Amino acid sequence: MDMPTFRGLEAYVGRTPLVRLNRLSELTGCEILGKAEWMNPGGSVKDRAAFGILRDAEARGLLRPGGTVVEGTAGNTGIGLATYGAARGYRTVIVIPETQSPEKLALLRALGAEVRPVPEAPYREPGNYNRIAARLAAEHGWFWADQFDNLANRRAHYETTGPEIWEQTGGRVSAFVAAVGTGGTLAGTSAFLRERNPAVVAVCPDPYGAAMWSWFTRGDLTQNDGESVAEGIGQNRVTKNLEGVAVGRAYRVPDQTALTLVEHLRRDEGIFVGLSSGVNVAGALAYAHEHGPGAVIVTILCDSGMKYAGRLGNPVWLAKHGLQAELPLETAWAASGELPANAAIKED
Fold it and tell me: How far, in Å, CA of 250 to CA of 242, rounded?
């Protein structure tokens, strides 16, 4: 009998399941599918970028055994870097906005990362978490992962996420939906899919307070009114990872819409995800109402809601931000003129 082949942790980045969102698919007449990215070893879609960035740095001689990786991150890329950095013998320093969930900060520390929370500041200011990470790298000779402008991020999704979706849908995918944080997921995945079939539509749902809806619909970076508590998404500049991406449709998504869908997934599908996943599912639904029935729409379920349980499961925190957990699905569309006018969901 042949000895089975055993592999280490890094062999299990990607190849996540593509899960049918049953109730939403039935309501729209489309196949709405979510890539279950919380099943990556580090627990999020950012595992792909983190691992890809580390491997690229090694190949280019920028990282050597015993080296230090520093990154500015909302959390998930840092978790990926700490996870795979440990497996490859690197120290990790994470600069993170202090507004991110306590669960993320605790997990980063538990993984052995040095965590430096900083006040939230726009990218143009020197106190921005990415600017600080860049300065630390220059001062100490550390490797700066630079996930926003490092094209190894986009390439990781071109090489893994796109091919997986193409294979898992048998080439039937009609649209790919992903909100923008760094832009790597949307750009890399859609580039691969559109090479295989130029009719595949890239869709960007955007939280309030970000500028991607404006960029993709009007060609400017006007920051839209309002703000969002969704973590890890919401961009106000065109990163290098976003350059050249062809987006066919963009929507603005209010936090209440995203939360209503997060609650629906938890209650009716048994899937507990964070608010960024709710934004993505809102984009998939909006596209389904405009272009269904019959479309095959794939979106990203970015990470588990367990990283946000102290917020999403906390009525006091929700009320502070004007959010309600238990609302019927049809209310998910009420707050936004940027979602299709006919995008009202009527449950039986």
Answer: 14
Which residues does 75 contact at the CB level (< 8 Å), separation at least 6? 96, 100, 101, 104, 105, 107, 108, 231, 232, 307
CA distances from 293 to 167, 192, 290, 311 (A): 22, 24, 9, 35
166 secondary structure, DSSP code: H
Single-letter code of the amino acid located at 152: A
282: amino acid identity, one letter: A
Q: Which residues are part of the catalytic machinery? A: 46
What is the pTM for the complete model shown? 0.94
User: What is the rounded distance in angstroms from the CA atom of residue 18 to the CA atom of residue 111?
Assistant: 28
Closest C-alpha among 318, 336, 79 to residue 208 = 336
CB 68 within 8 A of CB 140: yes
223-254 pLDDT tens trace: 767 899 999 999 999 999 999 999 999 999 99
**Whole-number Å distance between alpha carbons of 183 and 204:** 10
